[in-house]
């Protein structure tokens, strides 16, 4: 399916067709020039009319294949900056296989109950984090979160009548609880509000504010090491006014803007889940990175 998706990006989008045409024409011009030089040097070489058509067809075929190869959307794109000295990589893959610091999205209550997926979905990034990093030990995770939030003043407390399931303390949106060790930190950021009906809600403003807080935390605790982040806000947080590609661009823009004020880390990796690849035009992402 990803091959069909990339084929559609290449031949059914304006940018894809432009890149394909530019590379194909460039290759055709280069090959034609080389052929003319060869024929000029070996003037005694006789080429019949049928052979000329075959030669032209071969030139066109090679040029078109080269154009498609050069413009073919990749599953990984990287942009390196000289000022500041940072890099941004967008790639399709497994967030937890990156071997870097990770950014994990939470709600303002820092709920962790994944029982039957009522409060927190076990398939969400947070649910996978709890299973893959903590082995499903919610007690240990709650203890670590409590320690990390010890000095953070919560803004309100729900009653058990209003919110019968889950945690009751609400922390400010953009609160970051840093877990793990210096070798691999987990920056758990509250970028959405857990409503009492257990539906998480966020907004563009809340997401931008939360990203800024994450960069601050990484600046202090990350030791300039690489950091990986998913496309937060794309599903259960319901930032419905932005699609996945727009959210991805928002993350990169926020990171670059913050890095030009103070260093955050050497490399930011935005990891796209394979099932979300169908919603991302990597040609547009690559072009956007080159404009920053």
Topology (SSEs and partners):
Elements: H1 2-11, H2 14-41, H3 49-71, E1 76-81, E2 86-92, E3 101-107, H4 125-132, H5 138-148, E4 156-157, E5 169-170, E6 176-181, E7 184-194, E8 200-201, H6 204-221, E9 227-230, H7 244-259, E10 267-272, H8 282-291
Parallel strand pairs: 2-10, 3-7, 3-9, 9-10
Antiparallel strand pairs: 1-2, 4-5, 6-7, 7-8
Helix pairs in contact: 2-3, 6-7
What can you tell me about this protein's structure?
- The chain is an alpha/beta fold and 292 residues long.
- Strands 1, 2, 3, 6, 7, 8, 9 and 10 form an eight-stranded mixed beta sheet that branches. A two-stranded antiparallel ribbon has the order 4-5.
- The chain has helices at residues 2-11, 14-41, 49-71, 125-132, 138-148, 204-221, 244-259, 282-291; strands at residues 76-81, 86-92, 101-107, 156-157, 169-170, 176-181, 184-194, 200-201, 227-230, 267-272.
- The longest helix has 28 residues, at 14-41.
Quote the distance from N terminus to C terminus. 31 Å
- Helix and strand pattern: HHHEEEHHEEEEEHEHEH
Runs in which pLDDT lies below 50 for 5 or more consecutive residues are none
Q: Tell me the quaternary state.
A: single chain
Alpha-beta content class: alpha/beta
Strand content: 15-25%
Task: Based on Cα principal axes, name the global outline.
Answer: elongated
